[in-house]
Amino acid sequence: MSALPAAGPEAAPSRPVLMELKNITLRFGGVEAIKDISFDIREGEIRAIIGPNGAGKSSMLNVISGFYHPQEGEVWFRGRRRPAMKPYQVARLGIARTFQNIALFDGMSVLDNVMTGRITHMKRGIFAQGVWKGPAEREEVANREAVERIIDFLEIQRIRKTPVGRLPYGLKKRVELARALAAEPKLLLLDEPMAGMNVEEKEDMSRFILDVNDEFGTTIALIEHDMGVVMDLSDRVVVMDYGRKIGDGTPAEVRANPEVIDAYLGVAHD
Amino acid sequence: MSADFLYGVEVVLNGLMAGVLYALVALGFVLIYKASGIFNYAQGVMALFAALTLVGIMDGQVPFGHLINAIFGTDLHGFGWTVPAFAAILLTILVMILFAWCVHTFVFRHLVGQPPIILFMATIGLAYFLEGVGDLMWGSDIKTLDVGLPQGASLWIEDSTAFLGGDGFYGFFIDRLDVAATLVAAVLVAALVLFSQYTKQGRAMRAVADDHQAALSVGISLNFIWWLVWSLAGFVALVAGIMWGAKSGVQFSLSLIALKALPVLMLGGFTSIPGAIVGGLIIGVGEQLFEYLVGPSIGGATENWFAYVLALAFLVVRPQGLFGERIIERV
Ligand SMILES: Nc1ncnc2c1ncn2[C@@H]1O[C@H](COP(=O)(O)OP(=O)(O)OP(=O)(O)O)[C@@H](O)[C@H]1O
Ligand SMILES: [Mg+2]
């Protein structure tokens, strides 16, 4: 499938599909948060998910990262159907994420927080670390180096020893991104990475996201409310409204889609 | 130096040694509480159960012997062998790991997200259940535990410190078992601290203690970590059980060592490893000094309650414990 030119209306680059969601339906009791939605995420692209409050965007991200389990539909990752998985198993597949309401380890330093992002890369267990000191130490050093690179990359050297709980909101978001990046994920999921930031912080974050995508070639799926940001950053956009998908395509296509204009762009938002 | 002062020093030394053991027992609570929010009422019974199991294995006792005899009319008492202490300790560790797995898999896994009071109630149930299982498995008679730790007063310490004082001072009177227990406990406490600071699993443990969602998102299995902390708590319980058991026999009262940990937790906070260590030392020294200085004039036996009074007074002044962060309510 991946060898075929881009299927569907979107004029996206014909890169291989990394993740495909097929007919996902997710219910909470009587509420249908996601209604029969299908879309794909291609390798190396920045895929945005937009829509009004309560549209089901976070729910979709939670399905991808294994926090929610859809009642219907299939999740395909790297050409294989993914069975129902726990979030930690999804993380071990190489899917990292941030949260809409920031989930950091407040009691730990920035460095330790970012270090936890490497847990999936730490092979040596308790006994190796106690008994087999050499390789375990080498591994620790390698992990340290990877973490320091990311800390440099996101320009948070100054705060590396600061307990995360004391940081202002904007920096917390950045540390959360650093932790996700530390896993060197194949797919990076960002739930409103710029929410609540001022203009300058938003610009920084946009630049980081573009750089991550550029330099590491990381595939990114992100949820964002700021339309300007979405148009600038993303290769393709999925538009959701009341749990349904109402648009899918390049930013230009989506912006021209009448249904999207009605449902989303027309509505005054935040 | 005056003899009185030197006896005071001896009291402090003994207090410090008791304190290290209190710290160890308190750590068992802290490990589980931090990672899962469960206040484990069964910690003391776990120590009793671990000690019973160790004695049972060493003596080659048939587990559930009474039960089997009652049902099948057999007359089993022992396998007829004895197991060396070291091997028996390893086997007991395995039993405690299995116990941890059962506790998590059959009980607490199903209670994730329940309010703390429900979790606490479940541990009370667990405590009595485990006490019953211990009785059934190994019998309820008082047992002696001898894993080869040195016992009795150390003449060497006594002789070599006698010169410090004058005529009225005969050197520090220190029990060798206390010294051994202190060393073992100190090593274990240090090992636990290193483990939680520098290993993958330790880091994961701290992560789970801090935020479950975030921990999941970086690839940590909560179930594994919860099993791990129950196993560690079981191991801590075993060590505490060995020390107390060697001192005063393995019997029901051994489970009361948990009561010694409570004031330590009140003092040190329920989530702080350094708090448990410093708290243990303060309580250990505090209660011995109080008994030595004030006890005689008010009739003695102050060890039973002084630790709680100290902890209570402290709690009123610093509700968050020694090292806890002050909680300022957001309005
Ligand atoms: N864990 C949950 N339990 C019950 N209902 C939920 C849960 N998570 C989401 N929902 C419901 O699903 C719907 C979609 O919510 P979701 O958080 O996915 O929206 P969203 O598009 O991310 O909104 P926002 O822009 O406000 O973040 C809402 O009606 C919400 O109440
Ligand atoms: Mg959301």
The total beta strand count of chain A reads 10
Q: Which architecture of the largest domain in chain A does the CATH hierarchy give at level 2?
A: 3-Layer(aba) Sandwich
Number of domains of chain A: 2
Number of helices of chain A: 10
Structural class of chain A: alpha/beta
How much helix, percentage-wise, in residues of chain A? 25-40%
What's the gyration radius of chain B in Å?
21 Å
Name the beta content range of chain B: under 5%
GO cellular component, one term (chain A): plasma membrane
GO molecular function (chain A): ATP binding; ATP hydrolysis activity
Organism (chain A): Wenxinia marina DSM 24838
Keywords (chain A): ATP-binding, Nucleotide-binding, Transport
Structure notes:
The complex is a heterodimer of chains A (270) and B (331). In chain A, helix 3 runs parallel beside helix 6. In chain A, strands 6-7-8-3-9-10 form a six-stranded mixed beta sheet, with helices on both faces. A four-stranded antiparallel beta sheet of chain A has the order 2-1-4-5, covered by helices on one side. The relative contact order of chain A is 0.18. Chain A has helices spanning 57-64, 87-92, 110-116, 126-131, 133-153, 169-182, 199-216, 227-233, 251-256, 258-265; strands at 17-28, 31-42, 46-50, 72-77, 80-82, 95-97, 187-191, 219-223, 236-241, 244-249. The longest helix of chain A has 21 residues, at 133-153. Chain A has ten helices and ten strands. In chain A, strand 1 and strand 2 (31-42) form a beta hairpin. Chain A is of the alpha/beta class and 270 residues long. Chain A has two domains: 1-94 and 185-270, Rossmann fold; 103-184, P-loop containing nucleotide triphosphate hydrolases (Rossmann fold, 3-Layer(aba) Sandwich). Chain B is mainly alpha-helical. Chain B has a domain at 39-260. Chain B is globular. The N and C termini of chain B lie far apart (57 Å). The mean pLDDT of chain B is 87. Chain A binds chain B through residues 65, 67, 86-88, 91-92, 96-97, 99, 103-108, 112, 115-117, 119-120, 122, 124-126, 129-130, 179-180, 183, and chain B through 195, 198-201, 203-204, 206-207, 209-211, 213-222. The structure holds adenosine-5'-triphosphate (ATP) and magnesium ion. Chain A: Residues 19-267 form the ABC transporter domain.
